[in-house]
Amino acid sequence: MKKALIRMRLSAHQAHYGGGLVDGAFIMQLFGDCATELLIRKDGDEGLFRAYSSVDFLEPLYAGDYVEVTAWITEAGNTSRKMEFEAYKVIEALPQIHPSTARVLEEKILVAKASGTCIVPKELQTN
């Protein structure tokens, strides 16, 4: 199965803490959006997120950074779909130089990872 991918710029709207720090809950929202895409592609239905088995926040993200989130299905049962998620910083904002300054990172930085299980009831699977 292919990966789901979201890449976006984090805005001041996503910054929840001082210094423009983006909260982890926003990254979890992006993980959920990737899970939804995978379920629609596989089963033709959005399904439901059952549980995360692990979540690790490894590095901070700030307003102005660009984040890339990927997800993929690692195991598919009759109704359950186990998934893995990764979030990487790919562009770093440099507001200390100027409010509009940023740089593309030579190597993306893993900022969060997770694993979880989604459910798509059999009667809703159309693919």
Question: In words, what does this structure look like?
Answer:
- This protein has one helix and seven strands; from the N terminus they run βββαββββ.
- The strands form two sheets. It has a five-stranded antiparallel beta sheet, with helices on one face. Strands 2-3 form a two-stranded antiparallel sheet.
- 16% of the residues lie in helices and 50% in strands.
- With 127 residues, it is of the alpha+beta class.
- It has one helix at 24-43, and strands spanning 4-9, 15-17, 21-22, 48-57, 66-76, 80-93, 102-119.
- A hairpin with a 3-residue loop joins strand 5 and strand 6.
- The relative contact order is 0.27.
- The chain has one domain (4-90, 98-110): Roll (Thiol Ester Dehydrase, Chain A).
- The longest helix is centred in the N-terminal third of the chain and has 20 residues, at 24-43.
